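User: Can you predict the 3D structure for this chain?
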Amino acid sequence: MTYEDKIKYLRRYRNAICEINRLEDEIAKWRSLAEKVTASLALAPGGSTGDRIPSAVEHIEECIAKRERELSALCVLRDEIGKAIETVADERLARLLRLRYIDHLRVEEIAEQEHIDFRWTQKLLRRGIEKMAV
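Assistant: Here is the predicted structure, written as structure tokens:
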């Protein structure tokens, strides 16, 4: 597997978390729509027939079910990526990879936390990725 392929492999976890966050936002949006209290006149032209709440509830249930499936897949993915990182024999490199790809810290944050130079952190991350067996 090439270096770029390994990066894509590791980024799948972050992408899955972004999808879960998107679903959370969508659930919040539909809840907000369902909870809005507005005057509606069913008999007036263009008036609401009250279908908004059942429709919103249906969308919320669909999003929650999808989120639950995504969370299950996320747990499996985290374990898979964790095992791949464990293949790096150097504990320091493995720790940096965990901070970057599981804890989602930026390179600057990792450098500060580990008390090392930014560029050196980048080099160590690259070295760890190259040594990772996937």
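The two ends are 7 Å apart (CA to CA). The chain is about 75% helix and 0% strand.
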